[in-house]
TrEMBL record:
Residues 114-139 are annotated as: Disordered. Its main location: nucleus. This is MYB FAMILY TRANSCRIPTION FACTOR. The lineage of its organism: Eukaryota, Viridiplantae, Streptophyta, Embryophyta, Tracheophyta. InterPro entries: Homeodomain-like_sf (IPR009057), Myb_dom (IPR017930), Myb_TF_plants (IPR015495), SANT/Myb (IPR001005). Pfam families: Myb_DNA-binding. Keywords: DNA-binding, Nucleus, Repeat, Transcription, Transcription regulation.
Length: 251
DNA sequence: AAAGCGATCAACCGCAAGCCG
DNA sequence: CCGGCTTGCGGTTGATCGCTT
C-alpha cells in the first residue's frame, strides 16, 4: 500500500506556532469543529499540515488543558500507571483529566523517570502506590475515579466530534460544566499569547466562560456561509460552502 | 559579558490501526 | 477482501531558556 503523505509539504510552515495561527485555529475549531484535520488548515487559512493543527489543538489550545504544576498525586498516578501500562502515554493521559499524552511523556522523561528509578521495586509496588492514590478515605478514591471517568468521556466526545465528518459546532456541554476552572489551569500561559481571546466574544460571554457553542448555536444559516466567512476578516472559509443541502440532511 | 552546557518542552516524523467505499 | 484515507500514538528532534564557568 502506498502511503499518501499526511500533507503536501510544499509551502507549509513548520516550527513554533504564532499567536495569530493559534487564533485562526481556535476560531475555526470553536466555530466549525475539527470535521477533518487534513482539510482543516486549508479552510482555516493556515499554512500548516493537518497533523500539526491537530497536535496544536490537542496539546495546547484545547480548553481545560492543565499546564505544568503537577501535583504529587498526579505524579504518583503517572508513576503507578507507567508501571502497569508502560509507555502507553495516551492511556495514562486518559486517567489524568486535563493532561495530554505529550506533556505527560515530557514530564516523565524530565522528572519522573529519574524519580521512579530511585524507588525500589518493593516500595513502589502497585499496592503501595494504590494506597497512596486512594488517599485517606474511600471518597477520595471515588472522586478521582469519577473525575477520571468524566475526563475520559469528555475526551471521547471531543474526539468523536472530530473523527466523524460532522461539520457541526461540537457539543461540549460536559466540558462547559468545568469551564470556570479553565483560566486557573492556564496560568502558565502568558496573557500575551492569548490576548486575542479577550476579543473572542460569543453570544453568552467570552471564550472561557462560553468556550463551546451549544448545539443550537449552530444555526442552519451557518450552512449558507459564504466560501470565505466575512465574520473572520476573510481568513476562515466555511467547509459547509461545499456541502449540498442533500448532504446536510444526512446530519 | 559571553561562551558552553544541560534541561525542558513544543513540535515533527513515521508507523499502525480503524474506517469506508 | 483490498486499497486508500484519516486519525492516533509514541519516539525523536530541535529551539529556547537558564545556569555555570
Amino acid at each position: 500500500m502506498v502511503r499518501t503523505p499526511c500533507c503536501d509539504k510544499t509551502g507549509l510552515k513548520k516550527g513554533a506556532w504564532t499567536p495569530e495561527e493559534d487564533r485562526k485555529l481556535m476560531d475555526y475549531i470553536t466555530r466549525y469543529g475539527s470535521w477533518n484535520w487534513r482539510q482543516l488548515p486549508k479552510f482555516a487559512g493556515l499554512q500548516r499540515c493537518g497533523k500539526s493543527c491537530r497536535l496544536r489543538w490537542l496539546n495546547y489550545l484545547r480548553p481545560n488543558i492543565k499546564r505544568g504544576n503537577y501535583t504529587k498525586d498526579e505524579e504518583e498516578i503517572i508513576i503507578s500507571l507507567h508501571e502497569t501500562l508502560g509507555n502507553r502515554w495516551s492511556a495514562i493521559a486518559a486517567k489524568l483529566p486535563g493532561r495530554t499524552d505529550n506533556e505527560i511523556k515530557n514530564h516523565w522523561h524530565t522528572y519522573l523517570k529519574k524519580r521512579s528509578g530511585k524507588i525500589s521495586p518493593q516500595s513502589s509496588s502497585d499496592n503501595d502506590l494504590a494506597q497512596t492514590y486512594q488517599g485517606q478515605d474511600k471518597d477520595t478514591e471515588e472522586t478521582v475515579l469519577i473525575n477520571t471517568q468524566s475526563a475520559a468521556n469528555s475526551a471521547q466526545i471531543i474526539e468523536s466530534s472530530s473523527s466523524t465528518l460532522s461539520p457541526q459546532a461540537p457539543s461540549f456541554d460536559d466540558l462547559s460544566a468545568t469551564d470556570n476552572t479553565a483560566p486557573a489551569n492556564m496560568d502558565l500561559i502568558s496573557d500575551n499569547d492569548f490576548a486575542f481571546m479577550e476579543t473572542y466574544e460569543l453570544p453568552g460571554g467570552n471564550f472561557w466562560t462560553e468556550p463551546f457553542m451549544s448545539d443550537d448555536y449552530f444555526m442552519p444559516s451557518d450552512l449558507m456561509a459564504p466560501l470565505v466567512d466575512p465574520c473572520f476578516d476573510g481568513e476562515i472559509a466555511s467547509p459547509f460552502s461545499f456541502i449540498s443541502m442533500e448532504d446536510y440532511n444526512l446530519y
